[in-house]
Structures are given as C-alpha cells and as structure tokens.
Write a structure and sequence with these properties.
This protein is mostly helical. It has helices at 24-32, 37-46, 51-57, 63-75, 103-119; strands spanning 49-50, 79-83, 91-95.
C-alpha cells in the first residue's frame, strides 16, 4: 500500500530559532537578511501576490530560492500563505500584521542604497 503525503509546501512550518538568543541584530538578520527577503517584503507591501507574479517581479531569483525564502518568512510569521483552492491552484502570499512593521525599515534601506549608488557614480 502506497501512503500518500501532503504536497510539498503544505506541511506546518516550525518557528525558526534565533542563532544568538541575546543579540537583536543577529535576530533581525536571521529573519530578514540575505539577498531576497527585503525585496520580497517590498513587493508584498504593494499588495498580496501569487507566487508566479512575485517571481516575475524578481527576475533574478530562481523558483527554488523564492520558495525557500518565502518559507523562512512564513516560519518567522512575516508572510502569510493562503491557498486559493484545491492542490495545484495559485497560492497568494501577503504580509502578516507583524510583517507590516517592516516596510518602513525596507524604505530606509532602499533610500540608503540609492544614496550609496549615487556616492560611487
């Protein structure tokens, strides 16, 4: 007898641990650090999006990496994943209430990055 399992991506996510429990910078970087997470937050702040649309907004990211980053953001309760129907139907991603605390930070980083680009032109 073959045992069927849930499709990948539908299993409950475990909360990720903070690698250095007493360091707020380490906690922040673990949750939102890396090349793609702030960009994902930036686009989801515009509006909730299907996976495919989010990937089109970020042409340099692979499907595998986007999936991984979204799962980590879900585990940290920054992004919510909502299936719109049965298996193989689009899934919508959105910022959670907790995730909505991040766009001001993203905007400050974006503004700083713009100045940094201009400084070296």
């Amino acid at each position: 007898m073959i045992r069927q399992t849930e499709p990948a991506g539908n299993s409950p996510l475990l909360r990720r641990s903070n690698p250095v429990s007493d360091c707020p910078l380490t906690a922040a970087l673990a949750a939102i650090g890396g090349k793609w997470k702030l960009i994902i937050i930036y686009w989801l702040n515009e509006e909730p999006m299907h996976f495919a649309r989010l990937r089109r907004k970020m042409p340099g990211i692979s499907q595998k990496v986007l999936t991984q980053q979204l799962r980590e953001l879900q585990a940290d309760e920054i992004v919510a994943r909502q299936a719109t129907g049965r298996v193989a139907t689009p899934v919508v991603y959105s910022l959670t209430e907790y995730g909505r605390s991040l766009p001001p930070l993203v905007e400050n980083v974006r503004r700083w990055g713009r100045g940094h680009i201009e400084r070296y032109r």
